[in-house]
Amino acid sequence: MFRILLAVLLIFAQFAHSNAQKLSTSKPWTYWWWMGSAVTKADITAQLEYFSKSGLGGVHIIPIYGVKGYEKAAIRFLGDQWLEVMQHTLREGKRLGLGVDMTTGTGWPFGGPNVTVATAAQSMTVVDGKPVVKPTGQKVKRAAPGGEGLVLDPFNANGMSQYLSRFDSAFSKASAKPRAMYNDSYEAYGANWTEDFVQQFQSRRKYHLLDKLSLLNDSTGNAEATLVKIDYHQTLAELLLERYAKPWTDWSRAHGFVTRYQAHGSPGNLLDLYEAADIPETESFGTSRFNISGLRVDPDYSIDQFGTPNPLAMKFASSAANLSGKKLVSSETGTWLANHFKVSLSQIKPQIDELFTAGINHVFYHGTTYSPDKEGFPGWLFYASTNFGKTSHFSEHFPLLNRYVDLCQRQLQNSQPDNDVLVYFPIHDLWATKAKSGGGVHLLEVHHVDRWLLDLPFGKLSEKLWKEGYAFDFVSDLQLKKFTVEVNGILSSGNANYKTLLIPSATYLPEETLKELQRLADAGAKIVFDQKLPATVTGNANHEQRQNAFSDALTRLSKLKNVKVSTDLNADLAANGVVREQLAEKGLTFIRKRLGEGVPLYFVANLGNTFKGGWVKIGKGGVFFKSDPLSGVSTPRMRGTKGSEEIFLRLLPGESCFLTTSADGQDAPEVSSTGKHFDIKGKWELTFLNGKPKLPAAAQLTGLTSWTSLPDSAGYFSGKARYRITFDLPGSAASYANASLDLGDVREVANVKLNGKDLGVAWHIPFILPVGNALKTKGNVLEIEVTNLSANYMRLLDQQQPNWKKFYDINIVDITYKKFDATLWQPMPSGLLGPVKLVY
């Protein structure tokens, strides 16, 4: 155990040294909200030093609304003083090995004082067959001083260049610049028009929109109306890509920035929009419903209101990165995991593991708020949870989460995609349906994927592939043009290779896409249509004539021997050499990648409750090593003949690991268990060590229960307490070789010592630590220091000092966006709830 810890410490020492010279992308970064930009150089330095010591790799500055009482301290966005504190941040970041990104604006979405009425977002409605166009009137949400103004028209020909002009002058004399510019999720609500839309539509779609405008309101399913709706959405999507995403990216690159782009929420094709950025970024908002025993979900979180994270939505960002060879795929991570002051590290880890399995490898926490040290607890807070800052109840143990993310992302960033199936995204079938978002347009958001993804045959097929263990990426119509065909029909984008192009059951297909399918099939690509061929060519212009040619061409394509209309998808994929990983069948979630040429790398997470251990066949055969990011490398037992090997994988609910056929050495014994356990019971001594508002009296417990049930102030206590018990083993200590200590339910983090030896910190589910050689036959002394949430203390503080809620705009709200009031909360269970037992 000591050797493993020493190796880990040496790795981190080396990394800390290198980070002083070069920023780290493997370490997690964080959103850093500057409230009113009321910042000082001294507090900037202090907070950056905290971030560095906590194991973060960088910050993303987002100026937002201000703080009451700090109006005179507010600094106007992009003014000389603001640019000076930005330069100070960059200098200090470089000193500390921290990267710095910033939003190209304040709040979200793009907009501000130099957006004129002519270049502001517009909304069109059809009245009596004619367009009625009005400004949406939307202003920048959560704007900072100097960033207020109208939201930019994302389809305007000159809007982006005009918008960026203020940044040209601001950064023209900057000696240092942020790493990246950032564009938040679309959120231009109701925007569906621009001043030259009619002309653009005619040029692109080859007919007059105004002649068919009334068809946009058709609800009868009229065939021509459906085609017009598809054409309308297609035009919006093209303008968004050409006039918004690409110009912003081109400008950023020309000025020495890379770009992070949240394309979701927009009416465009997410795959094309994500690809336009250097770092595509998705978002994990809310709590997934993982079936992990002991994992809590805030009962106040509203699925109807916010939806839940979905890995298929995340895969749009990672697919775009894989196809175009982008190393980094980021995520806004941990948004509203639970109410303020109620988020634990054990809730964060599974959400991050889900992101990793969906192809994300550059985590950005949501987030931290700039807060002057003199403000104390809870300090300045952003309206949306989670708080990863210095005043968080888990700040002491925050480095443990960051170390885990760092170790995982090193491997994920330095490996290549290894997916077998390329799944075509038939967005035209979506555009043919009635929009469930405002403005009559489809907004492809990450919150409610049920509104645009899951109900489509494409969504159902993708869910099947995900659940049945297939490794796949998505591809758009435009992206198909990148592909060539190599030996054995392998599809190659130049950055990623695939064995099969899979076309979901779809009704509509552009003729340009059919031509690409024909080109690829003629070159030997293996193409599978799920259940049926598309029936209708998109585009209303000359439709009947084009439909006849389309049908003939599709029939010819379907007769090629390497093209299949599948009625048994699993069999047809297997015939093409596609691997179906047994990991998914066992209830495990995974991503498969490769190291160099031919060395497989799997990241596997147990996000369910059906698997604890068993024999598993790994699709890429060979002798596999198991690498636990936190404890080292081990060699699982194996059986079977070459090419059909199985490994005995032990992975408890909540745990994760890497599997690979290449390892430098064996650092840790493979954990085994006889299934036996010994319950540690008796008299527990409970002593409160530090915390707020005061230390409750010590207590003796005959059974483990929440310390909130104790008298005195324990129901309001937030801090650390020590549990101590002495016990004897039934039998010799030798019988417990390789035993583990299972702490049961921990609220929320436990530092453990046994007979004076430090066993480590249990901060995530399962709360289990290896005992090593610390046990003895008689007189074992077990000491467990447990730190709880700050929610219980906030129940009191919100009564005594409600004036901490002093922010402009939305101020501070609860998880349902209602006025925040912690005085209404019931006490949160706290401490060691157990049962505590030795497993051997």
Describe this structure in words.
- Keywords: Signal.
- This is Glycoside hydrolase family 2 sugar binding.
- It comes from Dyadobacter fermentans.
- InterPro entries: Galactose-bd-like_sf, Ulvan_degrading_GH.
- With 840 residues, the protein is α/β, with parallel strands linked by helices.
- The chain folds into five domains: 222 residues, no CATH class; 162 residues, no CATH class; 155 residues, Rossmann fold, CATH 3.40.50; 79 residues, Sandwich (Immunoglobulin-like); 163 residues, Jelly Rolls, CATH 2.60.120.
- Helices cover 27% and strands 23% of the residues.
- The chain has 19 helices and 43 strands.
- An eight-stranded parallel barrel has the order 1-2-3-8-9-10-11-12, surrounded by five helices. A six-stranded antiparallel β-sheet has the order 13-24-25-31-27-28, covered by helices on one side. Strands 34-33-35-41-38-39 form a six-stranded antiparallel β-sheet.
- The chain is globular.
Summarize the helices and strands and which ones pair or pack:
Layout (H helix, E strand, L loop, with lengths): L1 H18 L9 E7 L5 H14 L3 E7 L15 H17 L2 E5 L7 E2 L9 E6 L2 E6 L14 E2 L7 H13 L8 E4 L13 H9 L17 H32 L3 E4 L8 H6 L3 E7 L17 H4 L4 H14 L5 E6 L9 H13 L4 E8 L28 H16 L2 E2 L3 E4 L2 H5 L25 H11 L4 E4 L1 H4 L3 E2 L5 E2 L4 E2 L1 E4 L4 E2 L1 H12 L4 E4 L5 E2 L5 H16 L4 E4 L2 H7 L6 H4 L3 E7 L3 E7 L7 E5 L7 E4 L3 E3 L3 E2 L6 E5 L5 E5 L16 E3 L4 E9 L6 E3 L16 E10 L12 E3 L2 E3 L1 E6 L2 E6 L5 E3 L9 E8 L3 H10 L30 E4 L2 E3 L1
Parallel strand pairs: 1-2, 1-12, 2-3, 3-8, 8-9, 9-10, 10-11, 11-12, 14-15, 14-19, 19-21, 20-22, 21-23
Antiparallel strand pairs: 4-7, 5-6, 13-24, 16-17, 17-18, 24-25, 25-31, 26-30, 27-28, 27-31, 29-30, 32-43, 33-34, 33-35, 35-41, 36-40, 36-43, 37-42, 38-39, 38-41
Protein name: Glycoside hydrolase family 2 sugar binding
Pfam families: Glyco_hydro_106
Keywords: Signal
